TrEMBL record:
<protein>
    <submittedName>
        <fullName>Uncharacterized protein</fullName>
    </submittedName>
</protein>
Amino acid sequence: MDEASVSASAAFNLYQEGLAPEQILQLCFLRRRASRNLRLERIKIEDEFVLPRPELKIANVLPPTNISFKELLTSSSVLIKPCDNEIVAQNTSERARDSARRHFLQPQQAAAEEVRQWSALAKSDWLEIFNSSQGGQNYGMMRLNADAVVPSISDICWVMEQCPSEAFIGFVWEHLLALLLQQRKDLMNFQRFISRLVAHDSISLLSPKDFRAKVRARNLREVDDTLGAQAELALISVYRLQRESRF
């Protein structure tokens, strides 16, 4: 090795691949003996070496390329293809959306395994499916309408058991709770319904203050002052019982 410097290729050998793809400097440095005028009397043999002074150029580190800078600027952008996992997830979501749309009003006609795949749907998907089942009516602003067609309470309870996704629970809370109460159908199962609804972590783990605010935000008394008040008390009672059993 030359005393003044190390060639670029030799300097590159000082680097090795680390845990990550980056190149890191090795600890086993190449050494050379110090010049005679730098040596001291009685110096130890292991101290007679100094580290090399490598000269490194960027061209020796970067891999060679046959594309000129001009060609790089004028070349078209690379088409990024979705990975296989993204394609599979998209297909699964589309199949789940189609299945939920077909069975929304009578979900128990679908197989339980098929219903469990509905967990791939977002809250916006459920709202779109609900609106499509209303003959073109849009309930996105959640105005109450006694003519809205909704699944029975027992059907919704079954879906919550098979598909306890946060998206579906949020959709039921925000868009079906008041409608089910207003239509007063299958009220014998209403206690089971709110127990299943409040049992989900997205609701049961709320603080008491946040839960009461969430209940008030539903404006259940707008449906019927007496019935709405009873529903609010039932929700709070179920929440307290579940919170006590949890903590």
